[in-house]
């Protein structure tokens, strides 16, 4: 069951859902808008090997905006710290951003229950597009789980700002031969 906008507000006011800072005008009928922080990360290597930690370049988004190149990829983050130990948050692109050619968080929209932190957005621009700090870039819905709840305690817990992939920390890689 998805929460309505007024119910999201009630759950924030009752400290069951975290949205900080909370802007009531960002509420929608069944979601709340998330805004873009002022930093993005770009991967430095032209080929990503998931077994290795990747070097990234941090880029500040000026108040005049940052142009994203067509077919370019970077990581941004929400200004808001979000999460809940009782509801499952899901991140969705805003239709207005998608219609301008920006895919936001297309493949990793499910936030684990119990995760609290800023959301890292996967930004993939299909057209030249300028992004600005504070722009409404995504929306979050909250869903009531069914069954036993096991709270998230993984490698992205407490995220602040955009976070690069930590896939290299997964135990899977320990079972593979070292490449050379």
Entry summary:
The chain has 180 residues and is mainly beta. The protein has two helices and eleven strands.
Describe this entry's structure for a reader.
The protein has helices at 5-13, 95-99; strands at 17-20, 32-35, 39-43, 56-60, 66-68, 72-84, 88-93, 102-104, 116-125, 129-131, 136-143. It starts with a helix and ends in a 37-residue tail after the last strand. The strands form 4 sheets. A 4-stranded antiparallel beta sheet has the order 1-6-9-8. The protein has 180 residues and is mostly beta strands. It has a single domain, classed as Distorted Sandwich (Deoxyuridine 5'-Triphosphate Nucleotidohydrolase, Chain A).
Pick out the low-confidence regions. Answer: none
- In CATH, the topology is named Deoxyuridine 5'-Triphosphate Nucleotidohydrolase, Chain A
**How many beta-strand segments?**
11
CATH class: Mainly Beta
Give the quaternary arrangement of the chains. Answer: single chain
Question: What structural class should be given to the helix and strand makeup?
Answer: mainly beta
How many structural domains does the protein architecture include? 1
Shape designation: globular
Average pLDDT taken over every residue: 91
The fraction of residues assigned to DSSP E strands is 35-45%
| Helical residue percent band | under 10%
Helix and strand sequence: HEEEEEEEHEEEE
Question: For this structure, what is the CATH homologous superfamily?
Answer: Deoxyuridine triphosphatase (dUTPase)
Count of runs of 4 or more consecutive helical residues: 2
Q: Reading side by side through the largest sheet, how are the strands ordered?
A: 1-6-9-8
Largest sheet, in brief, is:
4 strands, antiparallel
What is the CATH architecture term?
Distorted Sandwich
The value of Rg in angstroms is 17 Å
């Amino acid at each position: 069951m998805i929460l309505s906008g007024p119910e999201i507000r009630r759950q924030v006011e009752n400290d069951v859902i975290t949205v900080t800072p909370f802007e009531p005008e960002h509420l929608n009928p069944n979601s709340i808008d998330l805004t873009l922080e002022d930093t993005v990360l770009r991967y430095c290597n032209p080929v990503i090997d998931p077994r290795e930690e990747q070097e990234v370049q941090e880029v500040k988004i000026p108040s005049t905006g940052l142009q994203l190149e067509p077919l370019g990829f970077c990581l941004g983050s929400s200004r808001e710290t979000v999460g809940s130990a009782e509801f499952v948050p899901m991140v969705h692109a805003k239709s207005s951003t998608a219609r301008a050619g920006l895919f936001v968080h297309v493949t990793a929209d499910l936030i684990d229950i119990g995760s609290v932190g800023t959301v890292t957005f996967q930004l993939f621009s299909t057209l030249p597009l300028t992004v600005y700090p504070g722009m409404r870039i995504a929306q979050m819905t909250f869903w009531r789980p069914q069954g036993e709840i096991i709270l998230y305690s993984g490698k992205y817990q407490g995220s602040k700002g955009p976070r690069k992939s930590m896939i290299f920390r997964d135990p899977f890689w320990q079972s593979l031969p070292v490449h050379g």
